[in-house]
Design brief:
The structure holds 2 protein chains of 2 kinds.
Chain A: H1 3-19, E1 32-34, E2 43-47, E3 56-60, E4 65-67, E5 86-87, E6 95-96, E7 103-107, E8 113-115, H2 117-121, E9 126-134, E10 157-166, H3 167-172, E11 183-188, E12 202-205, H4 206-209, E13 215-220, E14 223-224, E15 234-236, E16 249-255, H5 262-265, E17 269-271, E18 284-286, E19 293-296, E20 304-305, E21 311-318, E22 324-330, E23 335-337, E24 339-340, E25 351-357, E26 364-373, E27 397-402
Parallel strand pairs in A: 7-16, 20-27
Antiparallel strand pairs in A: 1-2, 2-3, 3-4, 4-5, 7-8, 9-10, 10-13, 11-12, 11-16, 13-14, 13-15, 17-18, 19-21, 21-25, 22-23, 22-26, 24-25, 26-27
Chain B: H1 2-17, E1 27-28, H2 44-50, H3 58-61, H4 68-80, H5 88-102
Classes of the chains: A mainly beta, B mainly alpha.
């Protein structure tokens, strides 16, 4: 460390005591919320100022990062569009003309084509799938030790009914794909502001891209996609994290090689082996399928409950890329099976659960919901820490105080 | 009465037989202004000049407290990978600013 640096630091130390008291979070037209992020900063402004949105937690205005407060998940299994989280890597256009929009389908296809929205809509059977859309970094802000990146609480998730055509039917409009095709890559209208920065492009393995459930969707809960959610079209990959659900879809490119682009090869990856904050040079793999998660939604950490009475707890769960098998309420050394709500919308959707404890005899310390999916995959007791805070699915625990 | 009820139903079923069409309308949005203000501190103007053209300050202000080396690495990534046009002198000032801001907690309202 040079003397110059030291001098500069000394200057900063001098300035800091008097000058750093200004509020960092100027008020939007809304309130403030505490996300209980360990060590902070934990307060976030909330605002109803984004068109089409109710009060949302503001992680960032430009490009937008909006999180739903957990109260959005207290009822039902479909998240209203005005409570659906928003996440853009690069700035999105604020206006899109439907008649001028085209989707280029090219690369290793028989005949490259440029499709209008009407041609996309006519490409095949219209399919609706209810599926959870969840950011790969949902819950990152709760990591211990903390990691950098968007400091989400657990509200970067939502469940919606998506309507569109199958991606494979759109690929068929280009005469089909090469037998040597390895991946199908997507790009949208969101592009970097700086020359030479990597565009946000993502790809699926060919087999996944051609599956029954992967859609080119134009509607969300029977409404057209809004600009914030990727108007006019977005990819929907039920069971996989939303990093693959490319918004404002403008290009579909079939690759005969592995995808070396930044957002596949360098980021949105996690360790293949257990790591600690000190680990270096470990092998990584792309984040793909979601693991199961569950939340207690009827009570918040620190709530009081009445001693000597029964207690009903309710919540939400999803199985990830497979349906839910079971949800248990777990405490220190005990577990109680929960009753699952009806399977209304298939394997990729939220489901409700509830459980009634016959008698509250004392504080309920560190209780949480633990879900298991049809593959037998369960939520872990301890956080599977990774340096980017991806795919959090540790059991989320709360303490209820008996009075 | 019964016939009157049946007629619309029949029309509805006939409509469903045809391939449904999708009515795509132009879309636009006016996002809210970004009111986030950077706390006062040495290098604040450099941060405004070099960082906030691409993203709101909240991206930086909401990070957990990390080391100077981590801020150097983050700002290095902004420059090398994301091609942020930030020169060496400015980058050093941004790092200093973030370290200073994070060592002072008074910019966050009390719990």
């Amino acid at each position: 460390m040079t003397e110059g640096r030291l001098t500069r630091r000394a200057l900063i130390a001098g300035a800091g005591t008097t000058a750093l008291a200004a509020p960092a979070l100027a008020k939007l037209g809304g309130g403030m919320i505490d996300l209980a992020l360990p060590g902070g900063p934990s307060l976030r402004p909330t605002t109803p100022d984004f068109p089409g949105k109710r009060e949302m937690i503001v992680q960032r205005i430009r490009p937008p990062l909006l999180e739903a407060p957990m109260e959005a998940f207290r009822e039902g299994v479909i998240t209203p569009n005005d409570r659906h989280f928003v996440r853009w890597n690069w700035a999105m256009p604020t206006e899109v003309k439907a008649g001028e929009h085209r989707v280029a389908v090219g690369g290793a296809v028989k005949k490259a084509v440029s499709l209008t929205l009407d041609e996309i809509a006519a490409a095949g059977e219209h399919v609706s799938i209810v599926a959870v859309n969840q950011c790969a970094g949902n819950g990152r802000g709760l990591s211990t030790p903390r990691v950098t990146g968007t400091q989400w609480g657990n509200g970067a998730m939502a469940c919606a009914k998506w309507t569109g055509v199958r991606l494979r039917d759109v690929l068929a409009k280009a005469g089909g794909i090469s037998p040597r095709a390895k991946r199908v890559r997507f790009a949208g209208l969101d592009v970097p502001l700086t020359d030479g920065a990597p565009q946000f492009i993502k790809s699926l393995p060919t087999q996944m891209a051609q599956s029954n459930d992967v859609l080119v969707a134009w509607a969300m809960n029977d409404e057209p996609l809004s600009i914030l959610h990727g108007f006019p079209l977005r990819i929907v990959v039920p069971g996989w994290f939303s990093t693959y659900w490319v918004k404002m879809l403008s290009t579909i490119e079939v690759l005969e090689h592995e995808d070396e682009s930044h957002y596949m090869a360098d980021t949105y990856r996690w360790p293949k082996v257990p790591v600690t904050p000190e680990s270096k040079d470990f092998p990584t793999a792309p984040i793909t399928a979601m693991p199961p998660r569950s939340f207690i939604t009827s009570h918040a950490d620190g709530d009081t409950v009445t001693k000597g009475t029964p207690l009903t707890l309710e919540g939400l769960a999803f199985g990830g890329d497979k349906g839910l098998a079971k949800v248990e309420l777990v405490g220190d050394g005990w577990s109680v099976p929960c009753e699952l709500g009806p399977d209304e919308h298939g394997p990729y959707a939220f489901r409700r659960w509830s459980v009634t404890l016959p008698n509250v005899s004392g504080n309920l310390t560190g209780i949480g919901a633990k879900s298991t999916n049809a593959n037998g995959l369960s939520q872990p007791d301890a956080l599977v820490w990774n340096p980017s805070g991806y795919a959090r699915n540790v059991i989320e625990r709360i303490t209820l105080v008996a009075q | 009465m019964r016939a009157a009820l049946l007629l619309p139903l029949t029309l509805l079923i006939a409509a469903c037989d045809r391939a449904p069409t999708v009515n795509f309308q132009d879309a636009s949005i006016t996002p809210p202004d970004d009111p986030n203000e950077l706390p006062d501190g040495p290098g604040r103007d450099v941060v405004l000049e070099n960082c906030t053209a691409c993203h709101s300050p909240s991206t930086m202000l909401q990070q957990p407290k990390v080391s100077r080396e981590k801020w150097e690495s983050i700002i290095g990534k902004m420059r090398k990978l994301y091609k942020a046009p930030v020169d060496d002198a400015a980058a050093a000032q941004v790092v200093d600013y973030m370290v200073a801001i994070q060592s002072d907690v008074s910019h966050e309202a009390p719990r």
